[in-house]
Amino acid sequence: MRLGIAGCLTHAFIGSALTPLFLLAAFAVGLVALVTLPREEEPQISVPMVDIHVSAPGLRAEDAEKLVTEQLETIVKAIDGVEHVYSQTYDERVLVTARFLVGTSADAAVLRVHDRIRANLDRIPVGIVEPRIIGRGIDDVAIVTLTLSPKPETAASVSAADLTRIARELRGEIAKVDDVGLTYLVGETGDAIRIAPDPARLALYGVTLQQLSAKVTAANRSFPAGMVRDGGEGIQVVAGETLQSPAEIANLLLTARDGRPVYVRDVADVSFAQDTADLYVSTVRKAVGGSIERLPAVTLAVAKRAGANAVTVAHDVLARVDSLKGNLIPDSLTVEVTRDYGETANEKANELLFHLGLATLSIIALVWVAIGFREAVVVAVVIPVTILLTLFAAKVMGYTLNRVSLFALIFSIGILVDDAIVVIENIARHTAMRDGRSRREAAVDAVAEVGNPTIVATLTVVAALLPMLFVSGMMGPYMSPIPANASAAMIFSFFVAVIVTPWLMLKVAGNGPVHHHQGDGAGGALGRTYAAVARPILASKRRSLAFLLAVGVLTLGSLTLFYTKHVTVKLLPFDNKGELAVTIDLPEGSAVEATDAVAQAVAKVALDLPEVVSVQTHAGAAAPFNFNGLVRHSYLRAEPQLGDVQVNLTAKGERDRASHDIALDLRQRVMALTVPAGTSLKVVEPPPGPPVMATLLAEIYGPDADTRRWTAKKVEAAFREVPFIVDVDNSFGVPARRLRVTISTDDLDFFHVEESDVFDTLAILGGASTVGYSHRGGGRAAIPIVVERPKGEKVLDETALTTPIPANVLPGDRGVVELGDVVRVSEERASFPIFRHNGRFAEMVTAELAGTFEAPLYGMLAVQEALDRQDWTGLAKPAIALHGQPADESRSTLLWDGEWEVTWVTFRDMGAAFAIAILGIYILVVAQFGSFKLPLVILTPIPLTFIGILGGHWLFHAPFTATSMIGFIALAGIIVRNSILLVDFIRHAPREVIVTDEEGGSRVARRPLADILIEAGSIRFKPILLTALAAMIGAAVILTDPIFQGLAISLLFGLASSTLLTVLVIPAIYRLLRS
What we know:
Elements: H1 4-13, H2 18-36, E1 49-55, H3 61-77, E2 82-90, E3 93-100, H4 106-119, E4 132-136, E5 144-150, H5 160-174, E6 180-186, E7 192-197, H6 199-205, H7 209-219, E8 222-230, E9 233-240, H8 246-250, E10 253-257, E11 260-263, H9 264-267, E12 268-273, E13 280-286, E14 292-296, E15 298-304, H10 310-324, E16 333-340, H11 341-370, H12 373-397, H13 403-431, H14 439-465, H15 475-479, H16 481-509, H17 524-537, H18 541-563, E17 579-585, H19 592-607, E18 612-619, H20 627-632, E19 642-649, H21 659-671, E20 680-684, E21 696-701, H22 705-721, E22 725-730, E23 737-743, H23 745-751, H24 755-766, E24 768-774, E25 783-788, E26 804-810, E27 813-818, E28 823-829, E29 834-837, E30 840-841, E31 843-849, H25 856-869, E32 879-881, E33 893-898, H26 899-929, H27 934-939, H28 945-956, H29 962-988, E34 992-996, E35 1002-1006, H30 1009-1036, H31 1045-1073
Parallel strand pairs: 7-25, 32-33
Antiparallel strand pairs: 1-3, 1-4, 2-3, 2-29, 5-15, 5-16, 6-15, 7-12, 8-9, 10-11, 13-14, 13-18, 17-19, 17-20, 18-19, 21-31, 21-33, 22-31, 23-28, 24-25, 26-27, 29-30, 34-35
Helix pairs in contact: 1-14, 1-16, 2-12, 10-11, 11-12, 11-13, 11-30, 12-13, 12-16, 13-14, 13-16, 13-30, 14-16, 14-26, 14-29, 17-30, 18-28, 18-31, 22-25, 26-29, 28-31, 29-30, 29-31, 30-31
């Protein structure tokens, strides 16, 4: 017998002293990889987003778009690696966001943008300040958030400023921990000395705001005034001292009026203030007795460095916090861990490692029962060796230990043992023949017999998996550990099967007796069962044809489950997370107090849910962002009318409902709240995979702004008609009211008033002016001294217009006039925001899906039906685009984006990967068998997997997801592997047999084809069934995971149906095509 590559390897290593060394080396490098691989909950996808903020004072949105936005867009779009350019233009400000290709280095992205803009500053109009560039990436997402709040009994004595001071000191201590990255505070509110001017009192004493600011600034000076000498010694002179208290400022002399001094206290109220920041952050939880406690809070967010182990960093951070309790952190405060991705990553890793061990033990038990104890011992060594080698490969390839890479190992465990099972079963069969060969010779011959088809079969699985590495978009790198690790596992499994397995078989068997199972030469009991089923099917060509037609009809019937929507299509199902969020968008111009009131109402209904532990509310401040918030730019939600509510759930093991079910319940409760008109409330779940701006996103393009907005309103109305579309919103809203202050140049000239004095006065009346800092010493942070009216008094009414401003009424006579003498106040509406995507104007309508259908495809179809029913008189009905922005903007177009875009790209690329996989498998099989037609027979069973895959999804009421597609593609390689083993045995089966005639003589007779097919099926059915069961066991342990359930169903049910049908379909095709 020709040994081939596999036989030669077995012959070389079966008695070599290097084999045990190879085994020990594999264990060693694998264990090192297992210990050193960084642990994370999810794959870290690098999607750099660089924000360019530009202040455009005095420009309305339309002007800012022409003068600033378009210039920046053309500069940014030309940068290498930029995939999308988004811009938002408002009155007096512009935000341009450059989104780079997935995988681009975040640091490189920021540098490219910075360098290109610096090189083109001459294109920025005169009067526009230099852009502010801020880069955000996956490593800026906090893995730990700590919320500091006072205990209920000490709440009265702990202020927000106290919390901020302690949080700042804690941040400094946390920064000392190794591998800690970006840290920031949410809700920080420091002390300030506020000088609150009263316009009426200013007018009474004729004091201007410029006088007030200048006096405080001058009195607050402290500076080095040179050196003096004293007895030959140089002594430094420090002049002045900063003001220390409100009383010192209040007693400053401003001027004299009617012969009596006028002090600061006469025209302004001076005090310590903590409400200068326009935000409210609090933690809300249930108190003993069921009441609701609201306490002020400050949250410290801690990210990690790139490549660091999230588990280790989070553990070290929390250990550092524990060590500071009772010292830096007083007993009067509570530190709540409101996010710990290190713990969740460790939990998921340990859970999946347990599943990995469970699958391994199950496969060992399967081999023990089906083949024997010694063979099971060999499998018990082979599986860990292959897994450890795969972990080493993952380490070399730069992957981390996350849920996807661990799922790849669990998925692989069922197929990596295939080679070993085939080799073990064949060695056991050859050894049991008792034909005079030694155990070593029998082992070498057994490996040689199945060697070539095993090589081809292994390569077919790799060929099926490897093209998935080239899926583009965010789903590509998210799922890449599966094809990478599974392919590595298959390659390692082949070498372990032909090098280590025969050596172990000899060592384990020793000199013990040869196990001989009666009838094993014909496949034993399983073989006899197979023959009983196959014989009627292969009895004639007509029966074979009828069987094939029945299987074909069953396959087509399974595909109709898509059409009838008994099986739906979705990118990824919702995961079971430990947090939810509710975003609050009040109409622009709403006060932060109104936003906070809505946030508290949301917190109250959230706490009614039994699974909710605590809630953090943010009004006017952005909550710590996660990966979803990174893409959606939630870190920019620091405006008075915007709020976020963070909902923390109990651990998964302590609740009966998944987070998605809780989110559906919470949404119903939130929607029942009474909120101000125009308020938008959205329940946001952490996405199961790559995040998007919205699950259902319609981008509206058109010839002009009015057409786009009217079309968007019609689309929004269509969204609201669909019952399973929720959280509907648009991008333009209702422009806020604003006051336009017009300066009369004639009055300025008449009163000799400078425009700068008018502007400065208005800036203080409506805003604030920091005139200095009070340095308290002792290492404490300086307190700003701010001239600002209290928030409740910031009105531009008749009293405010009496505020004095400097005027030179007569030469040499410095006097004052009232502000109202030189300005006119009128009300107007702000401009609509202008959105552009890759240089094209667009309006957006966004929504989420909940209920009957939760995939964007079904929402899109329902919306398009609703649009067809609408009256489009006077407005052109928009064209529908599924992918790619319209080239013609002269007519209205609705482009579906959001999760649909990711779904489109993912399934398109996976389809292409599947086509490449089929082509690669075909070429491998042609090379193996030297035939162009036979590979088509071998590929025939692939569609049969749909019977089990779609039937399984229907049975479990599970959507067909991207992971389901991965399972289908992987099945192509696995099923073809079984087909190759069966066809190879058929081709090499003896065609002739010696028979004895009635006279006692013998002659050579040609065997019937049906007998050859049944014999081949009987002998190969056992190893084919064992390898299928091994893969099904690997799939079964991940069946309960919400994300990878689709992969598990595809493997479990697809293997079950296709394995049973393959061993019948291929012989039936042979029977039909061959004589």
